[in-house]
């Protein structure tokens, strides 16, 4: 599966949600699709699953456009935060309906997962709690066997045990039936170990796309005396800077360059911290 | 083919409760009318009921909520907008045929077992219509009302509340202008001279035209209503 995104922009009436983004994703792989609130993640996922059209640019899967092309859309399963199911239907009816639309639907797996998440097939979707609704979304995503399976905040309302079950299932599915999973979540620390590739959207633009191996080489926190740190990071792209007790911490993109200097320390940056820094940077800009 | 079956299944499941509730109420009213007519025959001179018109109204109301209720769901399941419209069109045809059949049967039974007079639009053209004629008119009228409901839905869906009510305002203007400029005389002349078959065919073609316009309007629409 190959997703090609070429110069895609999406504007709403008062806001430009995506600004001319271009990238390529190739699977099978588990992709972490990250960004703070309002970064444009859900807009992009909606575009990828053909729910909305681009204002400019093109998204294609294996060379075929996604918007209004049933052959391409059949191989994409998008489990969104909400609105995935018809409230009047029961769980059993929902799963039956899914079997008509996803050509590789695995009914047996769906039934197994119903037991795993303790869902009653006779329950109406309307009567489900948030967590149960999320569980039904997860079941749909896994049982669809779609070449591209997108989970957007798939575990809202799920407890830690159920979330761990989801992570285990994700690994199991990727081992048994490898495909392209795109996982968008705010619980980054929990999920970060699953990701094979990371995409971060920031203010409607693609901030970075890196494999996990590349991540530690490219994103570094430089700490030390302010003048020494400033000297060491000159010429590098700075994501965030802050001073505490006469110590300057700078989060930088090294882009493969080595950082050298006296009295400085280099530390890896976790995904979660990176998004916190991006968020702080955005807030600081807004205050200015 | 699977997606067609799936769409019909989902559409039926989505509307099942409303359909059952509506028909239960309508049958209760018909049954009550039958008992009143049978047991109070001496006190009631003539008993009139309508079956088809409530069905038309119910159908148009159901169609007027269809996009908000189902479009997003079907698009998430991987249907294109054209496929969605094709499947909804099939659902409308099934809905019209089944409802027309039920209306026809109910009318036939009631007229056979009681003296209730059933008001039906076909009486404007024919005083003793056959079952098939009644069913044909009901099917076409139901298709028309379903399409009109869907048209209203797409207008509100795409243009928002303001645009939707402006559209209704424009529709209300049409009869007012017709009365002011006395266009109704030639219209009535035309309708009284035209054969029922030509009228039905005209209405069917008009419904198809409306449906094509809706399909065009939905081609690039988003899952988020305006």
Features:
heterodimer; A: 288 residues; alpha/beta; B: 226 residues; mainly alpha; two-stranded parallel sheet; 7 helices; 2 strands; 3% strand; globular
3D structure, described in words:
The complex is a heterodimer of chains A (288) and B (226). Chain A contains 10 helices and 14 strands. By secondary structure, chain A is α/β, with parallel strands linked by helices. In chain A, the strands form 3 sheets. Chain A has a 6-stranded mixed β-sheet, with helices on both faces. In chain A, strands 2-1-4-5 form a 4-stranded antiparallel β-sheet, covered by helices on one side. In chain A, strand 7, helix 6 (160-176) and strand 8 (180-184) form a beta-alpha-beta unit. Chain B is 78% helix and 3% strand. With 226 residues, chain B is mainly α. Chain B has helices at 2-39, 52-63, 66-76, 81-113, 131-180, 184-193, 196-218; strands spanning 48-50, 117-119. The two termini of chain B are 32 Å apart. In chain B, helix 1 (2-39) packs parallel to helix 4, helix 2 (52-63) packs across helix 5 (131-180) and helix 4 (81-113) packs across helix 5 (131-180). The model of chain B has no long low-confidence stretch (mean pLDDT 90). Chain B has 7 helices and 2 strands. Chain A binds chain B through residues 46, 49-53, 68-70, 73-74, 76-78, 80, 83-86, 88-89, 93, 96-103, and chain B through 2-3, 5-7, 9-10, 13-14, 16-17, 69-70, 72-73, 75-83, 219-220, 222-224.
């Amino acid at each position: 599966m190959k997703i090609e995104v070429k110069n895609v922009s999406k504007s709403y009436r008062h806001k430009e949600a995506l600004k001319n983004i271009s990238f390529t994703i190739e699977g099978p792989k588990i992709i972490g699709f990250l960004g703070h609130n309002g970064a444009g993640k859900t807009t992009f996922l909606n575009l990828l699953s053909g729910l909305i059209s681009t204002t400019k640019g093109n998204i294609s899967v294996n060379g075929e456009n996604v918007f209004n092309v049933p052959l391409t859309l059949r191989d994409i399963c998008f489990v969104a935060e909400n609105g995935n199911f018809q409230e009047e239907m029961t769980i059993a009816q929902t799963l039956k309906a899914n079997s008509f639309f996803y050509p590789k639907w695995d009914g047996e797996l769906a039934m197994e997962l119903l037991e795993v998440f303790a869902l009653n097939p006779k329950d109406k979707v309307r009567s489900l709690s948030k967590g149960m609704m999320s569980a039904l979304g997860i079941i749909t995503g896994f049982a669809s066997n779609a070449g591209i399976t997108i989970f957007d905040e798939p575990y809202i309302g799920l407890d830690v045990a159920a979330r761990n079950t989801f992570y285990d299932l994700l690994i199991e599915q990727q081992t048994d039936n490898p495909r392209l999973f795109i996982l968008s979540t705010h619980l980054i620390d929990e999920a970060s170990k699953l990701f094979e590739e990371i995409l971060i959207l920031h203010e409607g633009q693609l901030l970075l796309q890196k494999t996990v191996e590349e991540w530690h080489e490219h994103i570094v926190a430089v700490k030390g005396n302010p003048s020494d740190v400033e000297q060491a990071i000159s010429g590098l792209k700075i994501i965030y800077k802050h001073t505490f007790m006469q110590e300057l911490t700078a989060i930088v993109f090294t882009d493969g360059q080595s950082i050298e200097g006296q009295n400085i320390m280099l530390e890896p940056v976790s995904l979660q911290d990176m998004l916190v820094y991006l968020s702080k940077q955005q807030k600081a800009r807004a205050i200015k | 083919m699977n997606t067609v079956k799936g769409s019909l299944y989902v559409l039926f499941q989505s509307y099942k409760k409303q359909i059952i509730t509506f028909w239960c109420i309508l049958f209760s009213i018909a049954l009550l009318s039958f008992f009143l007519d049978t047991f109070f025959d001496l006190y009631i001179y003539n008993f009139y009921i309508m079956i088809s018109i409530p069905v038309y109204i119910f159908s148009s109301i159901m169609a007027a909520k269809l996009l908000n209720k189902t479009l997003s769901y079907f698009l998430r399941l991987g249907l294109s907008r054209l496929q969605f419209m094709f499947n909804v069109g099939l659902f409308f045809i099934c809905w019209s045929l089944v409802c027309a059949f039920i209306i026809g049967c109910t009318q036939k039974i009631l007229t056979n077992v009681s003296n209730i007079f059933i008001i039906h639009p076909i009486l404007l053209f024919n005083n003793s219509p056959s079952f098939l004629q009644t069913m044909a008119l009901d099917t076409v009228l139901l298709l028309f009302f379903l399409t009109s409901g869907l048209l209203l839905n797409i207008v509100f869906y795409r243009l928002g509340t303001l645009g939707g009510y402006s559209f209704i305002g424009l529709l209300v203007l049409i009869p007012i202008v017709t009365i002011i400029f006395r266009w109704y005389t030639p219209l009535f002349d035309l309708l009284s001279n035209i054969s029922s078959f030509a009228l039905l065919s005209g209405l069917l073609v008009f419904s198809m035209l409306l449906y094509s316009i809706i399909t065009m309007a939905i081609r690039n629409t988003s899952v988020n209503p305006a």
